Amino acid sequence: MGSTLFTNGLVWPGTSGAAFHEALAIEGSKIIAVGNDALSMKCDRVVDLKGAFVSPPFADGHAHPLFGGRQFFGPQITGLETIEEILAEIKRFADANPDQEWIIGGTYDPAIDPDGFFDAKLLDSVVADRPVVLNAMDYHTIWVNTEAMRRTGVDTFTGELEIGTVVRRPDGTAMGTLREWDAVNLIMSKAPLPSKAREIKALEYASKRYAADGVTWWLDAWVDRGMAEAYLAAEEAGVLLQGVNLAFRADPRSWQEDLPYFLERRKDIESAPKNRNLTAKTVKFFADGVIEGGTAALLEPYSNDPCSHGMPVWQWPEMTKAVVAMDKAGFQVHIHAIGDAGIRAALDALETAIKTNPAWDRRPTIVHVQLLDSVDLPRFTELGIIANFGPLWTRQDPMQAISSAPRIGPERADRQYLMRSLLDNKTRVAFGSDWPVTSEIPLEGIAVPVHRQTPDRKPEGGWMPHEAITIQEAFQAYTHEVAYQAFEDSSWGTLAPGFNADFIILDTNPFEIDPHDVPKINVLNTYRNGEAIYSR
What we know:
By secondary structure, the chain is α/β, with parallel strands linked by helices.
């Protein structure tokens, strides 16, 4: 591959407050020099950056790219703002795909209805002869038509669910909105699975999209049976441009039976002869649901429902037992925890694993960390737990203002996404997009924790401005800190000699512009191991 000197630019090494360089030199897949040392080298090729900004690449520490790729093949409803727009898109897709047995798509914004209740009859008005299933933005809720309920028996289901709710109309009939695991599975367990060829295409789409966004690594934080096999097939087909770590989902009712499968798939991935990109180091837990659905686990009751503390996915002692077992098996533990009770239970489980099992470089992660009790804030640093946030949620958008805040009241609403407090307490903070729940484009989310406003700059002064972070801290959370979460911080995430030649070139210095303008920046090139996997 030879050596290349990138010069006449602004090279940011990747840590907040680090000195900038003018040049970067690479040879093959490695960085060999920066700054004056690079300028003094005689390289085979010289690239004039023309003032462009060079950064470590973005990495997505929590996402569901296979789901994002699958959505590409369904109706395109993400971002639509009205029921009428959604119905029009469903009708368009159905008319264009008359032979598709099930219509499955996402994601709709549950804040379109303040209570998040969506009736099957609306979907029936545009498609009545085939099942229609739409995922809400949070992927904890689905909206279906009557035919989907008829084919799966939900229309006559009267039983109780351990984890989930079938929302009902005043007359007791199933409305068409189903929340959480057991309810969603009443439908999805009967839906046809995508073919292997379709799964490969979905991952190819996701990988190319990520490359254009400047992303060179991701964690798929929801891997069920069959999905690891799809990733292996995609790797064998040569469509994966990034490094990918898989997080197997631990189910509260089958985790003991699933652990041997996790171990076997990890072994298969590590030993696959053509595998250059895949690892399977992680197990994902869902401690609870989501505040907007009333299923996040809270220490005190919901303000709009004094009888409810939410809907934990696990019994806490069982989750602790499972976390200890996965940690003992050498898996990094990655826990979705949104409510303050869910976060506390996740901390308790990880603390037990740390005290019970032999010491190792475990790098446990709690993701979302939406509503945090002040008593538990220092425990992240004390236990060495990474806090992974979706940066796009640190603003008062309709999901927050309409669907979440009224459920928890003003005092708790002001305890959400405490990034500044955690950073000041020396907690490691990493970012993940949660795509397709929110946009996978780092430049769209990275400045939101800085200004903490919606695109129209509301509210004035920002939402909870005392929890704002700096733009360099935000970049670090989407680069170097995800590298640490990925156990790759000695390989990439920093631009220094000896590190992999993984970097991105942007047309504008993001540290010197209005943070609201950061989404307008263009990714010019994405390099991984010294090769451009994307060029604008």
